[in-house]
Design a protein that fits this description.
- The protein is α+β, with helices and mostly antiparallel strands.
- The protein has 2 domains: 98 residues, Methane Monooxygenase Hydroxylase, Chain G, domain 1 (Up-down Bundle); 243 residues, Alpha-Beta Plaits.
- Helices cover 45% and strands 20% of the residues.
- It contains 9 helices and 11 strands.
- The strands form 2 sheets. An 8-stranded mixed sheet has the order 2-3-1-5-4-9-10-11, sandwiched between helices. It has a 3-stranded antiparallel sheet with strand order 6-7-8, with helices on one face.
- α1 crosses α2 and α2 runs antiparallel to α3.
- 29% of the residues are buried.
Length: 360
């Protein structure tokens, strides 16, 4: 690491330690907790900084212990082994701290809205979209997150043409930090239930992951919105289909259109549509501000085309392959049941390595 990089890392560590101390002071103030949303934001950031502070403090302790052990070893050989053990710990802790000091994504502590869209493959693609939804719902359950389907367009033979789900953390854990690499085209290879000859087909579904924007993140001017209401369609029941409860919101400056019809109440559908709209506007603003090389969403869905795949789910071989990092595992059944951590960990490590290489 160059001296300039070392200086930058030292300055960043000092800034993060100061921020952690400031947050600790704020969270000790009862007045802060009168505003639950603010307390939650501060708590998340505090928890996010905890590994940095803990590692830095441990490194300082080990370095001090090493200096003392070396002094004692000069007089008493029995301390030599302890000094050697501490010498091995120092570079390990330094590397861990270096990784933790890599500038994080500003959205890492946010909840997400995840959208799954059927693409090429017709009915089979819609069924696969349903499989992906179940996978993410099971993963959320395993992590202790809450998940709420906020809009869904069902397909005739099962599955979904389009489905949106809001995933929230019940703790300080940021969901975007775990799910941000899920965006992209997911390809499935299997024998469809509609296939009479037993041939393997390939189809695709697109996943779009958006950090959920809070009102403080994005200001939406009501004058910029065109809101249309219409009669819901699909398996919503008679009470849904007999009233104009579905809502379509068009954001006039950007042309972004969001429709929601999952709820029976027009007001509920309006709120759900606004949640999705705010998140799409936040994602658009972040993409515009980021360069193509550093944009974490560069692999998100553009067109649901099988050739743009980020991951393949091969049923005959029970294999999952993530093409961005060369990850392969033959436990597809377990992955579809929500065991996503190994592939997400591989993607996270690759991104951290990329950032470390860029800063060295």
């Amino acid at each position: 690491m160059s001296s300039g990089t070392e200086t930058a890392a030292t300055d960043r560590l000092a800034a993060l330690l100061a921020e952690h101390a400031s947050l600790e002071s704020e969270l000790a103030d009862p007045a802060v907790h009168a505003d639950p949303a603010r307390a939650r934001r501060l708590g998340r950031r505090y928890a996010q900084l905890a590994p940095v502070v803990e590692t830095a403090r441990t490194l300082d302790t080990v370095r001090a212990d090493l200096a003392a052990a070396r002094e004692l070893a000069a007089e008493d050989a029995s301390f030599a082994a302890e000094a050697e053990s501490l010498e091995q710990r120092v570079p390990e802790l330094e590397e861990r701290l270096r990784s933790l000091l890599v500038p994080g994504d500003p959205d890492d502590d946010k909840d997400v809205i995840l959208e799954i869209k059927a693409g090429e493959g017709g009915a089979e693609s819609a069924l696969f979209a349903g499989d992906l939804l179940r996978m993410y719902l099971r993963y959320a359950e395993r992590r202790g997150w809450s998940a709420e389907v906020i809009d869904a367009v069902d397909a005739e033979l099962g599955g979904f043409k389009d489905v949106s789900v809001a995933i929230k953390s019940r703790t300080a854990e940021g969901i975007w930090s775990r799910l941000k690499f899920e965006g992209g085209v997911h390809r499935v290879q299997r024998v469809p239930v509609t296939e009479s000859q037993g041939r393997i087909h390939t189809s695709a579904a697109g996943v779009l992951v958006l950090p959920e924007a809070e009102e403080v993140d994005v200001t939406v001017d009501p004058n910029d919105l065109r809101i249309d209401v219409f009669r819901s369609s699909g398996p919503g029941g008679q009470s849904v289909n007999t009233t104009d409860s579905a809502v379509r919101i068009t954001h006039l400056p950007t042309g972004i259109v969001v429709s929601c019809q999952n709820e029976k109440s027009q007001l509920q559908n309006r709120e759900s549509a606004l949640r999705i709209l705010r998140s799409r506007l936040l994602a658009a603003a972040r993409e515009e501000a980021a360069t193509a090389a550093s944009d974490a969403r560069r692999s998100q869905v553009r067109t649901v085309d099988r050739s743009e795949r980020v991951r393949t789910y091969n049923f005959p071989e029970n294999r999952i392959s993530d093409h961005r990092v060369g990850f392969k595992a033959h436990n597809l059944d377990q992955v579809l049941d929500g065991e996503l951590d190994p592939v997400i960990d591989a993607l996270t490590r690759a991104r951290t390595a990329e950032l470390l290489a860029a800063g060295s």
